[in-house]
Amino acid sequence: MTFDANPAAPQTSAAAGVDAVLVLGDDVRRRMYDFVRRARRPVTREEAAGEAGISAKLAAFHLDKLVAAGLLRSRYDSPGGVRRVGRKPKVYEPADTDIRVSIPERHHDVLAEILIDAVLTEEPGESARSAALRTARHRGQELGAATRARTRPGRLGPERSLTVSEMMLEQHGFEPYRPATTELRLLNCPFHPLAARSPELVCGINHAFVDGFLAGLEAAGIRADLAPRPGQCCVELRAASGGHNAPDPATDGVGCARENGIPPVDDPGNTP
Predict the structure, then answer these.
(1) What DSSP line would sit under 158-224, residue for residue?
(2) Taking residues 179-188, what's their average pLDDT?
């Protein structure tokens, strides 16, 4: 899963993955799916039926279930390019999808993409860390701008900004939780357990991405803060009227507290 700059209706990859796994829970259906994948060519329902030892009508039912789950795609075509008289048969082939199930959600591919882009665009004299934070912020800005262009929310105040941000963060696996109308906490780090390798860097990337999203969204009156708590992500969103400045991810020493064995950081300046 990637941070799609033009996302459709919000849905988690975990939900799609669970649906796909449920479809594959049927032994006959899983056998047919494996057969289609191994064939390396479009397969007819008759071929799939022969492999599974069932009728073509029942095979069509199972194949269409696999299509509905996003595991296969179907079209009408002549198998092998052989022209035949009459209507072309319906054929099935693997869909270009990557089905993964992780609860809570993990998106290590997104972290990898950010780091690869950082390496490819690193500027002279720029550190690898600075390049990663710059890239993460740019990704967030792109997503925020695309979200604004799609939803056309007008002028965003603090509460509406948090509502729009909550939808995006839910879609990308952060498990947002809103204890107050002007506060949004993130209960999951999509990059755990890799965050344990370098919590300061990963927290900085998380913070830069969310902060960039707010900038692209043109959200008014809220900010993203580094505020690690036990069992949660290191970033939270809150109204900007708290009277203190957000920590600088490039210099702040706190790390992601989620399952990394890092105690919470007491920051008197962040205490209401």
Answers:
(1) HHHHHHHHHHHHHHTT--EEEEETTEEEE---TTTTGGGT-HHHHHHHHHHHHHHHHHHHTB-SEEE
(2) 91
